[in-house]
């Protein structure tokens, strides 16, 4: 039975690769990346082995604890990241619990993260090349550690499954948990600064961790190397107990999940709230705009972008204040706002992929291409302009230099107009494997992103070319403090933005009118 | 066999006295697999037309091509004399669609979704509001009008999609599996609505694999299997002396004549 489950997982992986060569390319790139990490880790471990056993032990405990934390946190952040072997799908087969657990746990190692974790954990033996006894123990402990990682992540997924199956939670968690990811740079920088301050404290931290379930298993070889047999036995007992408890939690949650179908209770709400549909003109284009705007706030795949984009300027401000002090904060905020606005408008380049087959409504109703393009562009444009102008104003207030506001605004307006124009063409021409409606914004199927990345990259490059005039003018105006050039940048941005927007909408509309059935067919393949 | 070969002439009879839907030589292949193999079909105006066939017979593919959702490899389609693929927007104005197996814009509330469908058709706000209210009441969705469609049950989702197909009062309704997972009471309500619609001169095409339903509900029927029309005409013509289900099995074949699962006995 265990072998069956493993074979099933391999078959699923193989079949998903058979569907498209691009997935194969993506998986190969992922595997190369993973192998790169693995190689670096193994070399690093071997080099580490030249140090004394205390240092080796400390580093391994700290790194290993971090690895555990990663396995615990990531499945929650990316709920449904890899549910190819979703336990719920086995609920109709009477598979003995013990074998189901074993099969699911072992199948966790089939796949890049699991395999790399297993190899790297057992690879910690390399750090003990000066102590053969400890190395042998490290091999065993590495395997236990990797198994614990997988079981822990499964346990936490199963424990949060009933919570995670409610739509509201899924929508919220997917979006909210992105925030720390975006702010990862500043957070790590602050943490590193903090850690450097308390470097002396690290050995104590490692020592404490080595007696907790997080670090115990990694500390056993060090204890063996130092000849502290009692400590080694105690830590191994802690590690095995942790594994047992996690398995028990997993088993309990799984047993409950198998007999409790996902529940969806809902309040009934009667008519009367048309939302944005009341605010936009009663025309096809107005309706598309109202629908798109509703989606920007209600669909996590869109609202994730709406949350991330405004955070980016703040990241830049943080980075620039680290590099150059606080003087440039205002300027950076304004320019970051232009980039954020661009990111918002660019996300409509995959609008039809996000619609998936719901797009059939547009096609069946015979929506003219011009109305479809204009409506989608209007919704994103409203949000992006509001965001960009807000940051430009904030930048001007902070830097106290209103004279340079037109320069920032010029770039913002130019980026929004050109971005919308090109995105309108792209979304009528290309479809990509976007997350399906209802999926987490983070979800991506293994290795499907390669062709999408090429399209996205050429789009970025294209917009970059289109905004060169504004970019040059704004840069000179800001760097040389020449407000007159700022006004020219504003005029250029307004004119070029409007021209590219109009051209993009027209070309996009013509492509749409010609290719709409093909677009529907392309997104139907991916559902 | 019924008289479907008689009207498979090259010039559609549809063009003299326009049929609600006329299909000539429609074909589609996915890769090397032919899904629809040159079908011909005439759906008279004012008829309640059933389309039956086993799973994978090409019903959905045919209907998608007939309604402008999927570009055919060959063949032509006319809706009330309008060439669907030459004059797409004009033809789509005449049709209301309930496609099977496609998603809806399900982050809208039911009320918003039907309103959206109306506005996309270019209708004015007051007419849309008025009809949305009537449709939601008729389909027993008024109490859930403000709930997001993503939180609807499967049957409610079908009903809201039907409302979206009806909002612009089309002359031809094309419904792919409209009764799937709809409860019996709602199904009866929907049948009443459709019968009234046909009585007032509209045309309905439904695909289904529930033979009893088609025999009771429809006046015309076409049997499709393996991408071809096996029989078409009035229900009585097609079924002869048999029930539609028996006739269907006779036409399509595939019933297992072996002794069955001998081991599947409890005693």
SSE layout and pairing:
The complex is a heterodimer of chains A (527) and B (267).
Chain A (H helix, E strand, L loop, with lengths): L1 H18 L1 H28 L4 H25 L19 H11 L4 H12 L8 H28 L1 H4 L2 H10 L1 H5 L1 H14 L4 H8 L6 H10 L3 H31 L24 H15 L1 H25 L4 H18 L4 H5 L4 H5 L4 H31 L5 H25 L20 H17 L1 H12 L3 H42 L3
Helix pairs in contact in A: 1-2, 1-4, 2-5, 3-6, 3-11, 3-12, 5-6, 6-12, 6-13, 8-15, 12-13, 14-15, 14-19, 15-16, 16-19, 16-20, 19-20, 19-23, 20-21, 20-22, 20-23, 22-23
Chain B lengths: L20 E10 L2 E11 L4 E5 L6 H8 L7 E6 L2 E2 L4 H7 E4 L11 H11 L4 H14 L15 H13 L5 E5 L7 H16 L3 E6 L2 H7 L2 E6 L2 E7 H5 L4 H9 L15
Parallel strand pairs in B: 3-8, 3-9, 6-7, 7-8
Antiparallel strand pairs in B: 1-2, 1-4, 4-5, 9-10
The greatest interface here is: A-B, 46 and 48 residues
Termini separation of chain A comes to 30 Å
The pLDDT mean of chain B sits at 87
Q: Helix count of chain A?
A: 23
- In whole angstroms, the N-to-C terminal distance of chain B is 44 Å
Proportion of beta-strand residues of chain A: under 5%
Q: Strand-and-helix sequence of chain B, N→C?
A: EEEHEEHEHHHEHEHEEHH
* Structural shape of chain B: globular
Net shape of chain A:
globular
Second-tier CATH architecture of chain B: 3-Layer(aba) Sandwich
Order of helices and strands of chain A: HHHHHHHHHHHHHHHHHHHHHHH
The total tally of domains of chain B equals 1
SS elements, strand count of chain A = 0
How many whole angstroms does the radius of gyration of chain A measure? 27 Å
Poorly predicted runs of 5 or more residues of chain A:
none
Mean pLDDT of chain A equals 82
How many structural domains in the coordinates of chain A?
Answer: 2
Strand order within the widest beta sheet of chain B: 6-7-8-3-9-10
CATH fold topology of chain B: Rossmann fold
What does this entry look like structurally?
The complex is a heterodimer of chains A (527) and B (267). Chain A is mainly α and 527 residues long. Helices cover 76% and strands 0% of the residues of chain A. Chain A has two domains: 258 residues, no CATH class; 244 residues, no CATH class. Chain A starts with a helix and ends with a helix. Chain B contains nine helices and ten strands. In chain B, helix 3 crosses helix 4 and helix 3 packs parallel to helix 5. With 267 residues, chain B is an alpha/beta fold. Chain B has a single domain, classed as P-loop containing nucleotide triphosphate hydrolases (Rossmann fold, 3-Layer(aba) Sandwich).
């Amino acid at each position: 039975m265990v072998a069956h489950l493993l074979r099933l997982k391999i078959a699923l992986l193989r079949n998903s690769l058979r569907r498209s060569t691009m997935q194969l390319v993506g998986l190969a790139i992922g595997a190369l990346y993973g192998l790169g990490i693995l190689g670096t880790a193994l070399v690093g471990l071997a080099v580490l082995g030249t140090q004394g056993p205390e240092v080796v032990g400390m580093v391994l405990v700290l790194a290993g604890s971090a690895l555990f934390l990663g396995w615990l946190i990531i499945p929650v952040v990316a709920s449904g990241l890899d549910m190819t072997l979703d336990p719920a799908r086995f609920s109709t087969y009477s598979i003995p619990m013990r074998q189901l657990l074993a099969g699911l746990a072992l199948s966790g190692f089939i796949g890049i993260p699991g395999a790399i974790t297993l190899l790297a954990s057992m690879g910690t033996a390399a750090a003990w090349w000066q102590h053969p006894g400890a190395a042998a123990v490290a091999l065993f402990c590495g395997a236990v550690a990797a198994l614990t990682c997988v079981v822990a992540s499964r346990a936490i997924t199963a424990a949060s499954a009933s919570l995670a199956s409610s739509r509201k939670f899924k929508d919220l968690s997917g979006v909210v948990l992105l925030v720390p990811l975006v702010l990862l740079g500043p957070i790590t920088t602050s943490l590193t600064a903090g850690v450097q301050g308390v470097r002396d404290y690290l050995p104590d931290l490692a020592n404490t961790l080595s007696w907790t379930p997080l670090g115990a298993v990694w500390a056993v070889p060090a204890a063996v190397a130092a000849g502290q047999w009692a400590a080694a036995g105690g830590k191994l007992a802690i590690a095995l107990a942790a594994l047992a408890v996690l398995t028990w939690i997993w088993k309990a949650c799984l047993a409950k999940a198998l007999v409790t179908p996902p529940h969806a209770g809902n309040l009934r709400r009667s008519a009367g709230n048309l939302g944005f549909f009341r605010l936009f003109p009663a025309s096809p284009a107005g309706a598309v705009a109202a629908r798109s705007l509703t989606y920007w706030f209600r669909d996590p795949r869109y609202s994730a972008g709406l949350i991330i984009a405004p955070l980016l300027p703040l990241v830049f401000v943080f980075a620039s204040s680290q590099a150059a002090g606080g003087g440039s904060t205002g300027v950076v905020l304004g320019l970051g706002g232009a980039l954020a606005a661009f990111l918002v408008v660019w996300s409509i380049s995959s609008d039809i992929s996000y619609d998936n087959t719901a797009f059939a409504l547009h096609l069946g109703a015979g929506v003219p291409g011009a109305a479809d393009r204009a409506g989608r562009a209007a919704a994103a444009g409203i949000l992006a302009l509001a965001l960009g102008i807000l940051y430009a104003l904030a930048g001007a207030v902070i830097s106290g230099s209103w004279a340079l506001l037109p320069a920032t605004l010029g770039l913002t307006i130019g980026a929004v107009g050109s971005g919308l124009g090109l995105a309108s063409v792209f979304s009528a021409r290309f479809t990509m494997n976007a997350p399906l409606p209802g999926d987490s914004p983070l979800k991506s199927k293994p290795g499907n992103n390669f062709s999408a990345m090429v399209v996205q990259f050429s789009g970025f490059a294209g917009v970059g070319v289109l905004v060169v005039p504004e970019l040059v003018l704004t840069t000179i105006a800001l760097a040389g403090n020449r407000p007159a050039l700022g006004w020219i940048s504003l005029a250029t941005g307004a004119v070029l933005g409007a021209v590219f927007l109009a051209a993009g909408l027209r070309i996009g509309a013509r492509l749409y009118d010609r290719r709409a059935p093909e677009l529907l067919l392309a997104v139907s393949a991916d559902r | 066999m019924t008289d479907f070969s008689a009207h498979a002439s090259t010039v559609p009879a549809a063009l003299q006295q326009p049929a609600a839907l006329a299909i000539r030589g429609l074909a589609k292949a996915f890769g090397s697999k032919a899904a629809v193999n040159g079908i011909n079909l005439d759906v008279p105006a004012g008829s309640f037309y059933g389309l039956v066939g086993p799973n994978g017979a090409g019903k959905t593919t045919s209907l998608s091509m007939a309604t402008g959702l999927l570009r055919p490899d060959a063949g032509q389609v006319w809706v009330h004399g309008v060439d669907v693929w030459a004059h797409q927007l004009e033809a789509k104005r005449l049709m209301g669609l309930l496609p099977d197996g496609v998603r809806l814009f399900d982050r809208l509330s039911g009320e918003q979704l039907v309103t959206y469908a109306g506005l996309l058709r270019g209708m004015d706000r007051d007419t849309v509001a008025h009809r949305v209210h009537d449709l939601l009441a008729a389909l027993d969705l008024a109490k859930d009008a403000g709930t997001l469609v993503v939180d609807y049950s499967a049957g409610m989702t079908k009903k809201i999609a039907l409302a979206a197909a009806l909002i612009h009062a089309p002359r031809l309704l094309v419904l792919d599996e409209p009764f799937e997972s709809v409860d019996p009471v709602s199904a009866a309500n929907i049948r009443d609505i459709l019968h009234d619609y046909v009585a007032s001169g509209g045309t309905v095409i439904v695909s289904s694999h529930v033979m009893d339903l088609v025999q009771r509900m429809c006046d015309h029927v076409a049997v499709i299997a393996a991408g071809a029309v096996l029989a078409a005409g009035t229900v009585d013509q097609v079924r002869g002396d048999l029930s539609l289900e028996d006739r269907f099995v006779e036409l399509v074949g595939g019933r297992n004549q072996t002794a069955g699962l001998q081991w599947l006995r409890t005693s």
